[in-house]
Predict the structure.
Amino acid sequence: MHSSLIVKFNTYVNSVKDPDCKAILEWIIAKIGDPIYTHPAAVSIHHDYVSGLLMHTVTMADIAETLVPIYDADRDILITGILLHDIGKVIEMEGPVVFHYTLQGKLIGHISILSAMIKEAADELKIEGETPLLLQHMILSHHGQQEYGSPVLPSTKEALLLSLVDNLDCKMVALNKALETTNPGEFTQRIFSLDGRYIYNPKK
């Protein structure tokens, strides 16, 4: 599964046509390197395993592909935002086997780390126009609400779609994880990411 996810991730990277999106995306991927493929997406709650970040990112891109034509979204901006949105976690957390936060992770966090990287990439590549700003906004707003760590709220169509798809995948993965240890006909333990709810596992 790991190798097929890498292929899929790189296929999404190569599918981006917008030159500014492509240049920023490739610059950041080259800067961070192979840990993109092995890091977890979180210390706990969702995708907290080796290559969890890769799984989360590819799943989100798969979901986004179905939504682009339905909502007439800018595919290159959305896919680029999705591929980048959690890459800062490679710097935020040490891994891939023992997961804990780095000093940068604790003091700055993955959202601010990646927003700064996009600005650095745009400056170095001499990219003008609003594309870097749109990408930064997607990163800064992808948690959807300020109480969840986003300094700003999603204020473009693509930023809103990114935050919704991220929320969907995180919550469904946490739910499936809880259901794995819940017998049919019983309720799960409280699921933190679902507002502490108990979820029923129907009898087959």
Observations:
- The mean pLDDT is 86.
- The beta strands are 93-94, 100-101, 186-187, 200-201.
- Residues 6 and 153 are 31 Å apart (CA to CA).
